[in-house]
Amino acid sequence: MIRLENLHVRVGTFDLREITLEVPTGGYALIIGPTGSGKTTLLEAVAGHARLRAGRVFMHDDDVTHLPPERRRLGFVYQQYHLFPHLSVRDNIGYGLGRGRGRRDAADPEARVAELADMLAISPLLDRPIRGLSGGEQQRVALARALAPRPSILLLDEPFAAVDPATRQVLRRELRELHEREGITTLQVTHDFDEALRLGDLVAVLAEGRIAQSGSPEQVFRYPNSAFVARFVGTGNVIAGVVERTDPGNGTGSFRGTFRGGSLVLEVVAEREGPTHAVIRPEDIVLSLGHSPGSARNHMDGRVVRLERTGPVTLVHLDVGRALIASLTTQSVEEMELKPGRSVMVAFKATAILLV
Amino acid sequence: MPVRSLMSRVVLAALGACLVLFIVGPLLRLLFFASPASLGAALRDTELRDSIVLTVFTASLATFIAALLGVPLAYLLARRNFPGRRLVQGLIELPVVVPHPVAGIALLLFLGRRSEVGGALAHLGLEFVSHVPGIVAAMLFVSAPILVSGAREAFRGVDPQLERVARTLGDTGWGAFRRVTLPIAGRGVLAGSLLAWSRSVSEFGSIVILTYNPKVASIYIFDRFTAYGLQAAVPAAVILLLVALTVLVVVRVLQPEERR
Fold this sequence. Notes:
The structure holds two protein chains of two kinds.
Chain A: E1 2-11, E2 14-23, E3 28-32, H1 39-47, E4 52-59, E5 62-63, E6 74-77, H2 89-93, H3 109-119, H4 135-147, E7 153-157, H5 165-182, E8 185-190, H6 193-199, E9 202-207, E10 210-215, H7 217-222, H8 227-233, E11 237-245, E12 255-261, E13 264-270, E14 274-280, E15 286-288, E16 299-310, E17 313-319, E18 323-329, H9 330-335, E19 343-347, E20 353-355
Parallel strand pairs in A: 3-8, 3-9, 6-7, 7-8
Antiparallel strand pairs in A: 1-2, 1-4, 4-5, 9-10, 11-12, 11-14, 12-13, 14-20, 15-19, 16-17, 16-19, 17-18
Chain B: H1 2-33, H2 36-44, H3 46-79, H4 85-92, H5 94-97, H6 100-111, H7 116-123, H8 132-156, H9 161-168, H10 173-202, H11 207-210, H12 217-228, H13 230-254
Helix pairs in contact in B: 1-13, 2-13, 3-8, 3-10, 6-8, 8-10, 9-10, 10-13, 12-13
């Protein structure tokens, strides 16, 4: 288990603050955020490399805030791998298994190295120098080196950033399997939400040094709590506008209202008035042929601008006075004979509009 | 265009060749000026032998002290950003720009019996002026900057993240330095030490002021030249040149490829 309580780290003029996060034992959490949001700094703080200005770090209920990195029993895989250039692959993997250095698993370092090399399919490389290894091979060696001392916690900094997409797929799957087999509590940093959806039990979106939102990947994706998160995780259409109340409401907080964003006027269920963002997922937009019945709310006329096929799903780029993206099955796009320039009726339910 | 570029290449090569010949020419002339017989005779001369032994001993001691004090400093300069870092860096390179007789006079004033420091050390039995420690002090003064800058560059060439990785793998800060940074930077540090050592061996200007006797090799050669003339100085000069060339070859082998 990793528990971060209200961490505050300053690096130069950059502040990482109010970081509170708990990863349960055996869990797989992802920190996602754009470049410069403080992801790597956060991992360094967990590892004990960055000095905390405030806050506490717990691992398995032990307060490790003041422990040096070497006593935190964690594995750290860096984005650039940072393999030891003066050692062979074998000695890199076995580095943390040093004889009689008070580290656990001093039992049989060679067997452990062989086991990991086997698991990661790098046995033939064991006696090679680091120079000349491919990116994917280096990645596996770095992973094996981090896992060798059987850490209870694994920290991964953009582990797939430097490998080609095909290798990335394979490594992702292997990593997930390894995680399940070794039961290591894992905290990974990525800028790729897709990775979070595939790997994580928990995601935290980092923006400018703070956690903007955390929860299950599904929850964060479907219910982003801000325009930033919605844009970053690719929830879909994010429209800036203003909410006006149209009925007094029932006293529970939510009320019917009108959202105006440029030329777009939507009927919404809102909880507060004023400036806000409407998030509309592409799959919640319904397209049909013909014209909208003028009076109906959340119906409007639009025009197809472009079709973007991504396998069984096609993204339909629309112009309704502003740009919108709808997601339809490729089959229904074909049945409706949608093509650029075609007029369509665009509709969505008031409850499908998320105000953040 | 090809003609012009060929022309310019010829001009550049000719200019460079002039300089290389100017350096190699005199040294080759010196090497072949001495007959093998005179070299053999010079090596049998106990005074020359003693001066070479003394030179090697004092230069090694000066290099050892420079390494002991300078390698940690080089590491700090390469890795840590502390207030006054640039000032320290500038100060440590000061001996490079100070003319060597000036350095000798400064050391004489500082370590002579009449200064507080020199007097106190003399009280403890450590005499510098006209004693072996004076040679070591002069050598240390002129060679330390070379060792520090060589070691500093070697440490700069090692990715600091590697130490962090080593720490997450269970090493203490010292362990990570010993098992990662030092082995990787080791060749560069050693090359810097050898350059400092040969700088010590070649030192003359400050030693001549601080400790004329006992004579190190450079002073012995100067002494032979002034007392007996050119022929008498050449064999010793050749032997010293051969020592310097050997060191240069070793340094080249030790240095990482990209800096050769």
